[in-house]
Specification:
This protein is of the alpha/beta class. It is 48% helix and 14% strand. The chain has nine helices and seven strands; from the N terminus they run E-H-E-H-E-H-E-H-E-E-H-E-H-H-H-H. A seven-stranded mixed β-sheet has the order 2-1-3-4-5-6-7, with helices on both faces. The longest helix has 25 residues, at 152-176.
């Protein structure tokens, strides 16, 4: 039976363990998590056929150093980070001969709790080991996922807008307290739905998207510049 080790047991790590358990033997290592159905040592996880890093980008340096000491030669490292260029650079530097598959699941416990079918999995063939990559693609299709292939740079440029901008605006709405309004309209509800996105995300994910992607700061700057321009135009009209 295929074995899958997961490092990290946050909301996404638990989600993966639950979804993959019917397809493989799953082992989970997480320093801070309580004992669970899949609990194992790092050494046991590192001997699995696949090791999935379900930790924030900020934790990569520490996890990589620990994993380097115990990982089996043929174990495939599966990166699922929400940004691609920085984590892949860290992994390639640390694991020069280790098979690697770079992915980004564009879904999570909230959106795919009932079924993963139809959701998108971004995969980066340019930095992935060909044989392991093909197997992961076949497994993804078997799960009903829609696979989109991008380079790491293309991914990060797109995700800076798709998630970086979205999460930034959502966090601003939360900080403004938009949920405190008495009156509601259908259009305003859409704004509330956007704000609710950030209520389901961890601070670590927000930091990864905003600080771990070199393209996100530019997108935030473009948004702020556009907002300021609109505000300045309104001020001129009032004058």
């Amino acid at each position: 039976m295929i074995t899958v080790g997961i490092i990290g047991f946050g909301s996404f790590g638990r989600f993966l363990a639950e979804k993959l358990s019917s397809h493989a033997k799953v082992l989970v290592y997480s320093k801070g998590a309580k004992q669970n159905t899949w609990s194992a040592t790092l050494q046991q996880v590192a001997q699995c056929n696949y090791v999935v890093l379900a930790v924030p980008l900020q934790s990569y340096p520490v996890v990589i150093e620990q994993l380097k000491k115990v990982i089996a030669p043929n174990t495939v490292i599966v990166d699922i980070c929400s940004v691609k260029q920085k984590p892949i650079a860290l992994l390639q530097k640390a694991f020069t001969n280790q098979p690697l598959v770079a992915t980004h699941p564009m879904f999570g416990p909230e959106s795919a709790a009932a079924d993963m079918r139809g959701h998108t999995l971004v995969m980066c063939p340019e930095v992935s080991a060909p044989s392991a990559y093909k197997k992961v693609v076949l497994f993804a299709h078997m799960l009903g996922l829609r696979v989109i292939e991008l380079t790491c740079e293309q991914h990060d440029k797109d995700i800076a807008v798709v998630q970086g901008l979205t999460f930034f605006v959502a966090q601003a709405l939360v900080n403004m307290g938009v949920h405190d309004q008495i009156l509601h309209t259908a259009t305003f509800q859409r704004l509330l739905n956007l704000a609710d996105i950030e209520r389901h995300h961890s601070k670590e994910l927000f930091a990864t998207i905003q600080l771990g992607n070199d393209h996100t700061a530019r997108v935030r700057g473009e948004f702020l510049k556009a907002a300021i321009a609109i505000n300045d135009d309104l001020r001129k009209q009032k004058e």
